[in-house]
Amino acid sequence: MQTVFDGYRPGALAGVLGLHMTYYAREWGFGLAFETKLAAELARFLVRFDPARDLFLTAWRGDRLAGSISMDVSGGGTDGAHLRWFVVADEARGAGLGRQLLARAIGHADGVSAGPVWLTTFAGLDAARALYESFGFRLRAESDADQWQGGVREQSFLRPAPSPASPERFAP
Fold it and tell me: What are the φ/ψ torsions at residue 119 (nearest 5 degrees)?
């Protein structure tokens, strides 16, 4: 089935939350604390969303949400753009959709000259880490902090800003 990339559609916020909870509750035991934190932060992002700088990208297969990723450029802080809410539905994993979403998000950040890109995640998500590293992200810190309250070890990754002529620039 063909994948259609889009931005916000009615129900997308709930769909992104659902994809996260389907995976993280089953695989990591995350519950209410994670879901409410995710819902509040994603809602705040969408309310202040600047379409000239930020990205809220959804991937659809028919009427089903297959994945999503966001790039918070305007609220990323001094470290650059913040890559957030990256998730792929169970049935879409392993077919390259995650790589397509990440390439589009990095291409967006590079296109708006966002500089470096950073993300937070946690230890144990090995496939995601390998994907991030293939796009130039490097582990910059690891700690026992657990903002998601799931008993995990938090990690922070940074992708330095590419030089203007760098082959590491990604086109969406």
Answer: -150, 155
Rounded distance between C-alpha atoms, residue 103 and residue 16, angstroms: 19
Token representation of residue 35? 């879901």
Q: What is the pTM of this model?
A: 0.89
Phi, psi (degrees; rounded to nearest 5) at 136: 95, 5
Q: Which two tokens stand for residue 12?
A: 């997308």
How many angstroms separate the CA atoms of 161 and 172, rounded? 16
CA distances in angstroms from 102 to 2, 55, 57, 94, 145, listed in the order given = 18, 11, 10, 14, 25
Domain residues of the chain, as ranges?
4-159
CATH code 3.40.630.30 for 4-159: yes
In sequence order, what are the residues at sequence separation of 6 or more whose Cβ sits closer than 8 angstroms to the Cβ of residue 105? 55, 57, 69, 70, 71, 83, 86
Q: What is the pLDDT of residues 109-153, one digit of tens each?
A: 999 877 899 999 988 898 999 999 999 999 998 887 766 556 778
